[in-house]
């Protein structure tokens, strides 16, 4: 006698039975439910997959790569990158140095001559004392008497007087020019005396002579001995000149030997001070002026001193 395992319920039974007695018993009493419960109990449960294995494998791979890099890292870098070319030294181009003191446009300008006397046909070149990058524009108040070129060259054309103006940007300067005829000019003789003060000048020459104001010309002599005629204006007996601070001029009168008394006409406006016939320019504000009156032979002449 031997044992047989039931293919249905899995129980062992004797081969003397034709069928499994256990299955027949279950079918008889439970209608097959017990067998089903037994089968479920005998069926093994499936376990959830574990990630421990892949993690361990990944860690091992990283450790191997680290060891290889520590041992052969330099060789690997050389094999991958190859031999790098040497770096050449680059010399930077020098930076241009800016001009520490660039020439700026002039706010005010002055000329090398404030008063100029020429004979007909004579020439003289005027220059701007200040250095500037702008172009100087020259002009004459009476081209029939005096002309001026673009370079400042003054040419005497005919007897008379005119004012040469130099303009650089908004700044201006003037020069009073007197042109003498080639022959037959008046002579002047005078002696200086009288009182000294800030508003009262001197008396020169004959005190009783009567003169024609329209034939008179005011002159100015610098400390260096240069003498020139003041520029005439549209008004008879009124002349003008430009000067800068520090200059000293001595006034004179051409065309008569009559005595003349010089005095400031009102306030000097800080432009100058008068001592006898000597005018000392004290002002520095360009364009301001003072008027000096000369009384002679019952009439008057005027000299306008303008700061340049």
Essential attributes:
Immunoglobulin-like; 6-stranded mixed β-sheet; 20 strands; 16% helix
Structural class of the helix and strand makeup?
A: alpha+beta
H and E string: EEHHHEEEEEEEEEEEEEEEEEE
Give me the number of helical elements. 3
Strand order of the largest sheet: 10-16-19-20-14-13
Write a structural description.
By secondary structure, this protein is α+β, with helices and mostly antiparallel strands. It has helices spanning 21-30, 33-42, 52-81, and strands at 3-5, 12-14, 115-119, 123-125, 137-140, 146-148, 153-156, 160-168, 171-180, 200-203, 217-222, 227-229, 231-232, 238-243, 248-254, 260-264, 272-275, 278-281, 289-296, 299-307. The strands form 5 sheets. Strands 10-16-19-20-14-13 form a 6-stranded mixed β-sheet, with no helix packed on it. Strands 12-11-15-18-17 form a 5-stranded antiparallel β-sheet, with no helix packed on it. A hairpin with a 5-residue loop joins strand 13 and strand 14. The radius of gyration is 60 Å and the shape is rod-shaped. The N and C termini lie far apart (152 Å). The model is unreliable at 184-208 (pLDDT under 50).
List the helices and strands and how they pair.
Blueprint: E1 3-5, E2 12-14, H1 21-30, H2 33-42, H3 52-81, E3 115-119, E4 123-125, E5 137-140, E6 146-148, E7 153-156, E8 160-168, E9 171-180, E10 200-203, E11 217-222, E12 227-229, E13 231-232, E14 238-243, E15 248-254, E16 260-264, E17 272-275, E18 278-281, E19 289-296, E20 299-307
Parallel strand pairs: 3-9, 14-20
Antiparallel strand pairs: 1-2, 4-7, 5-8, 6-7, 8-9, 10-16, 11-12, 11-15, 13-14, 15-18, 16-19, 17-18, 19-20
């Amino acid at each position: 006698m031997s044992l047989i395992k039931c293919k249905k319920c899995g129980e062992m039974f004797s081969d003397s039975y034709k069928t499994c007695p256990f299955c027949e018993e279950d079918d008889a009493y439970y209608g097959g439910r017990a067998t089903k419960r037994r089968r479920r109990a005998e069926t093994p449960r499936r376990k959830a997959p574990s990630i421990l294995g892949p993690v361990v494998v990944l860690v091992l791979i990283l450790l191997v790569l680290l060891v290889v890099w520590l041992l052969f890292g330099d060789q690997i870098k050389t094999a991958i990158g190859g031999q790098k070319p040497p770096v050449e030294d680059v010399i930077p181009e020098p930076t241009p140095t800016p001009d520490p003191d660039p020439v700026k446009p002039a706010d005010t300008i002055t000329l090398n001559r404030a008063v100029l006397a020429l004979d007909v046909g004579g020439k003289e070149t005027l220059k701007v004392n200040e250095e500037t990058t702008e172009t100087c524009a020259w002009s004459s108040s009476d081209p029939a008497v005096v002309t001026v070129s673009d370079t400042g060259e003054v040419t005497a054309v005919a007897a008379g007087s005119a004012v040469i103006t130099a303009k650089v940007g908004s700044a201006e300067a003037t020069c009073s020019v007197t042109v003498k005829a080639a022959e037959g000019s008046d002579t002047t003789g005078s002696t200086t005396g009288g009182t000294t003060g800030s508003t009262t000048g001197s008396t020169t020459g004959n005190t009783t002579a009567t003169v024609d104001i329209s034939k008179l010309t005011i002159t100015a002599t610098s400390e260096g001995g240069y003498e020139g005629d003041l520029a005439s204006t549209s008004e008879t007996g009124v002349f003008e000149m430009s000067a800068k601070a520090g200059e000293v001029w001595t006034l004179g009168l051409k065309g008569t030997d009559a005595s003349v008394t010089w005095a400031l006409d009102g306030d000097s406006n800080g432009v100058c001070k008068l001592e006898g016939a000597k005018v000392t320019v004290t002002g520095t504000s360009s364009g301001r002026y003072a008027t000096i009156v000369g009384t002679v032979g019952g009439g008057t002449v005027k000299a306008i001193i303008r700061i340049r």
